[in-house]
Amino acid sequence: MAEEGMWLPMLLGQQVYNDMVKKGLKLSREQLYSINKASLKDAVIIFNGGCTGEIVSGSGLIFTNHHCGYDAVAAASTVEHNYLRDGFYAKSLQEEIPAQGVYADFLLKVDDVTKEVEDSAGRLTGPERAAKVQSAVASIARRYSDASKSQLAVVSPLFKGNQYLVFVYQRYNDIRLVGVPPESIGKFGGDTDNWEWPRHTGDFSVFRVYMTRDGKPSPYSLEDIPYKPRYFLPVSLKGLKEGDFAMIYGYPGSTNRYETSLGVRQKTDIDNPTLVKLRDIRLKAMFAEMKKDPAIRLQLASSYASIANYWKFYDGESKQLLKYDIYGQKKKEEEKFQQWAKGKPAYENLFTDWKKAYDDYRPFSMHRVYIREGILGSPLMAFAASLQQLENALIKQGGGDVAKAMEAASRARQKFLQSENRASDQNMLAPILQMFYVDIDKNQHPQGFFESLRGSFGDLKEASSFQKYTASLFSGTMIFDETRWNAFAVNPDATVLQNDPAYGCASAFLKNWQGKYLSFFQQFNSVNNDLGRIYLKGVMEMDPQKTRYPDATFTMRLSYGSVKSYNPRDAVHYNEFCTMKGVLEKYVPGDYEFDLPSRLLELAAKKDYGQYMDRQRNDLVVTFITTNDITGGNSGSPVINANGELIGLAFDGNYEALSHKIAFDAVYNRTICVDIRYVLWCIDKLGGASRIISELRLVK
């Protein structure tokens, strides 16, 4: 449909390629993807396991999104040298900052291993099949990996397990921060503008890959030199107009486009509303503390941004699924399938079995969201829950390896304490516990937990009772008490751990879920996976001529479309570009989301945009939108023109099409991109980092 599809570039069909050429592409298939020759795919990387980045110079320079580099920038920052707030540009290679723990993966090759996986599974179903598949996948990954060369393999199931491909990557661990704009540019608009168009965010950061002098990956070393890539992207300053071809290369994380009406109903009725409600509590508690102190804001910034991003996404997803009746659309597709399936034993009872699986699981599904997003959404509860491993070692027959478990727990505690903000954690846990009490079937409550809370702290209808309980829990746990924890570490004892109030609380909820209700989810998951695979196999049999793309699985994909405006609702038109004029219109001095650096205001007042000026608009283009099909994981992806030149970085989607994980919207779907000319202006004119510009191959 229209420009729908996240296509595997190594398996790009002739029909899809021909359509790309028809819409403007000037490159050959081999220029897009080649194993033997340098091609576009060699410039596109996995950035730190969750985003995409691109190589833009012959010295290993990486462009990616500001929010993709956020953790690394926060880790490098202090209150005195706050790179999040003030920005940073290295004036030389020596000033580039090691980004601890950050890595870049380059794709080396892809092989189809479907037959090997299917042969291992045979005719098995359910948990037995899953175990065989898991074993085969692990074996293949080991065989294709080579730790001595920093090569790792990932086996990805496609079309819900009807195809398996192994992707082999080379990992580089010496990554350094080269430059980042101030947060007032990189996060301009904050949560208010997240998932919205028009948007004026300069969402970029700059890193560099390093290698040994003989060209190999290595951990950080002063002896390392900048990486010499097989290919890097030239950068276009030519500008854009509506209708121009746009291609996005990258690593989209996950979609579920072949989801059923049953899954859509589960999402809109239970999963999404519950998640949104619980994340709302967590965000409010964190934000209240972040406003009080710059140090707390820095401490919680990364976690807050991560939670907020998908809080808004899942809220919007539910609204769009309902607005466009995706349930009804899926239902029609399934009715067509069921007509075709009559008399075919492999398929005719599929939806009867599927509905029963959902009906059996549904009563426990909200409980699962409460455990993941509520109880374990509290950082203290999440850490306390991790001490289950220590408890298991302490009570295990023969003692287990207690010393090893205790050492691991102490290390994890130190890491937890560095990131923990007690006030916000305590203020989120109290309402979450009260909401669990109200929302979850009382028959599913941890036995005796709420009765005990009532007996000691008061009426469960009163918020104050839960506040008193959490205050007691936070003040009474040894997790925050260095003396008590050290004494426990010297002489670990199961009874002491079990009597700790924080561990007791986390353990009560977790063991209740694990012991009584987890099996319902596991059984549902097993049946759902089996039936999903069979359904899609049947769909492909029903219409074998149709060209299909697999769901996103954080594997290399390309999508294509064009620069295009849209009309989100009656009498409203959204242009395809945002400019500096709009940035200045949104500016609010001192505001948490809409403040701007004084230097930007000075340059903008003089229209000092240099070679980055858009002559057609007599302004600086900041962002633009395309019709490309992307999802999370594509953050930082290169937006490429018909000639293979970089024109922008993808960083967001629009609110009107937030159903995109499940259903692509051909009318409203837009990808929001930061214009590469704004990126370069921020680096050059605003940041004074002309040395970075000098590395690029600019196309004018």
Describe the fold and architecture.
The protein folds into 2 domains: 9-103 and 173-256 and 551-699, Beta Barrel (Thrombin, subunit H); 261-535, no CATH class. The mean pLDDT is 96. Strand 7 (151-158) and strand 8 form a beta hairpin. Helix 3 (66-76) runs antiparallel to helix 10, helix 13 (379-386) packs antiparallel against helix 15 (402-419) and helix 13 packs across helix 21 (501-542). The protein is 47% helix and 15% strand. It contains 25 helices and 22 strands. Strands 1, 2, 3, 4, 5, 6, 7, 8, 9, 10 and 11 form an 11-stranded antiparallel beta sheet that branches. A 7-stranded antiparallel beta sheet has the order 14-13-19-20-21-18-17. A two-stranded parallel sheet has the order 12-22. The chain is α+β, with helices and mostly antiparallel strands and 700 residues long.
Q: First CA to last CA: what distance? A: 34 Å
Largest sheet: 11 strands, antiparallel
Q: Helical amount among residues, as a percent range? A: 40-55%
Radius of gyration: 26 Å
CATH topology of the largest domain: Thrombin, subunit H
Low-confidence stretches: none
Instruction: Indicate the multimeric state.
Output: single chain
According to DSSP, the number of beta strands is 22
Q: How many domains comprise the coordinates?
A: 2
Cα shape: globular
- Tell me, rounded to a whole number, the average pLDDT: 96
How many DSSP helices? 25
User: What is the CATH C-level name of the largest domain?
Assistant: Mainly Beta
Portion of residues in beta strands equals 15-25%
